[in-house]
């Protein structure tokens, strides 16, 4: 189990400036990025054993994080 928080800056290191600009200028992107951070932090707390939950719920969160990451990647490549 990885205890790395998977922040957007780590996931897309070459796109930090574009992420920042999109957060400021695109409300939909900002909402998606905020949702990613919220889900990502919850996963990190579960993996670090700060919070407990079922394996099924943890996997559901990981799938949601991946879907949000894919959507963010779409913005970054557009």
Number of strands: 0
Q: What is the helix content?
A: over 70%
Report mean pLDDT, rounded to a whole number.
Answer: 93
Topology pattern, helix = H, strand = E = HHHH
Major sheet description = none
Structural class, by secondary structure, is mainly alpha
Number of helices: 4
Q: What gyration radius follows from the Cα positions, in whole Å? A: 13 Å
Question: Which helices and strands, and how do they pair?
Answer:
Blueprint: H1 8-11, H2 16-25, H3 27-47, H4 55-77
Helix pairs in contact: 2-3, 3-4
Output the keywords:
74% helix, 78 residues, mainly alpha, single chain
Quick structural summary:
The protein is an all-alpha fold. It has 4 helices and no strands.
How would you portray this structure in words?
By secondary structure, the protein is an all-alpha fold. The protein has a domain at 29-78. It is 74% helix and 0% strand. It is built from four helices and no strands. Helix 2 crosses helix 3 and helix 3 packs antiparallel against helix 4. The N and C termini lie far apart (33 Å). The model has no long low-confidence stretch (mean pLDDT 93).
